[in-house]
């Protein structure tokens, strides 16, 4: 296996926007072949145009097993293999409210996208990675999953679930060439904050010891290392990207 990611096939969910898109740009610049999966057809089409040639754009609902399986089948048809998966599809749900003011449906919706989606995409790609005894899966969790953010119960619970999911599957595949990790960023300014009350954003940014948000460039660079062949002795881990908020 080459130590570069040139010609690696990378699936990026949530690739139409924010962290997913910035990561797809970074990996493509390093020669990876990209499959962008996202629920938003217009965002997907604009993102794939911006990325340039040879990008496979697949409208996918990460909550649906049938939709995820169909997207993986299309990726295999087009590229024959899957080396890297970055699961960046995610939603915040209602924020700025305590648990007693959150409708159960909203809690379920957030868990469905963030946690069920992480399970479904991992389950769908692992058999393909096993065939070649190689793979890098990175599930984007959040500092909210490590620390628990007040006013973000659905999001925090779903992200804690993702951290546990990566710990568990990481151990299951530890004797293969496949690693499964999660990443816990603090605040990176993207459209996910568009519907959040300013007080919620302030709550999160004030807790960052570096006293600033992370950038998309910092995030994509960290992800680029995590999913590289060089990063071969870490699995089941939750990487930190929080400007010092979590030191564990
Ligand atoms: N931006 C931050 O501060 C931050 C911090 C920690 C964790 N995260 C996580 O990083 C990931 C990316 O977030 P972002 O900030 O880039 O947000 P974003 O809103 O810019 O991008 C999220 C993408 O997910 C897609 N998506 C939503 N529901 C989907 C579904 N059902 N199926 C497929 N795609 C779906 C959206 O269409 C969008 O393109 C999310 O999991 C988010 O929770 C973000």
Report on this structure.
- With 248 residues, this protein is α/β, with parallel strands linked by helices.
- It has a single domain (9-240), classed as Rossmann fold, CATH 3.40.50.720.
- It is built from 8 helices and 7 strands.
- Strand 1, helix 1 and strand 2 form a beta-alpha-beta unit.
- Helix 1 (18-29) crosses helix 8 (216-226), helix 3 (65-79) packs parallel to helix 4 and helix 4 (104-132) runs parallel beside helix 6 (153-172).
- The longest helix has 29 residues, at 104-132.
- The chain is globular, with a radius of gyration of 17 Å.
- The chain starts with 8 loop residues before the first strand and ends in a 7-residue tail after the last strand.
- The mean pLDDT is 97.
- The site of nicotinamide-adenine-dinucleotide has 28 residues, from helix 1.
- Following the backbone from N to C, one meets helices and strands in this order, namely EHEHEHEHEHHEHHE
What is the overall number of helices?
8
Task: Please list the strands of the largest sheet in the order they lie side by side.
Answer: 3-2-1-4-5-6-7
Work out the helicity level: 40-55%
What's a concise summary of this model?
The protein has eight helices and seven strands, in the order E-H-E-H-E-H-E-H-E-H-H-E-H-H-E. The protein is an alpha/beta fold and 248 residues long.
């Amino acid at each position: 296996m080459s130590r570069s990611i040139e010609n690696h096939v990378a699936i990026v969910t949530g690739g139409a926007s924010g962290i997913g898109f910035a990561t797809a740009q970074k990996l493509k610049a390093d020669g990876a072949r990209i499959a962008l999966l996202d629920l938003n057809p217009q965002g997907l089409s604009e993102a794939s145009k911006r990325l340039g040639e040879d990008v496979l754009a697949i409208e996918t609902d990460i909550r649906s097993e049938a939709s995820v399986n169909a997207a993986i089948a299309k990726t295999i048809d087009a590229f024959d293999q899957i080396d890297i998966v970055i699961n960046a599809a995610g939603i915040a749900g209602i924020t700025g409210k305590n648990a007693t003011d959150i409708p159960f449906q909203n809690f379920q919706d957030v868990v469905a996208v963030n946690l069920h989606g992480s399970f479904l995409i991992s389950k769908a790609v692992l058999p393909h990675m096993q065939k070649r005894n190689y793979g890098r899966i990175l599930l984007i969790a959040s500092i909210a999953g490590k620390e628990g953010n007040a006013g973000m119960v659905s999001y925090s619970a779903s992200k804690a679930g993702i951290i546990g999911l990566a710990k568990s599957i990481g151990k299951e595949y530890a004797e293969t060439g496949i690693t499964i990790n999660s990443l816990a960023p603090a605040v990176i300014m993207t459209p996910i904050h568009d519907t959040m009350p300013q007080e919620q954003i302030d709550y999160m940014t004030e807790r960052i010891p570096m006293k600033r948000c992370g950038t998309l460039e910092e995030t994509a660079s960290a992800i680029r290392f995590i999913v590289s062949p060089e990063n071969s002795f870490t699995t089941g881990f939750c990487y930190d990207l929080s400007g010092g908020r979590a030191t564990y």
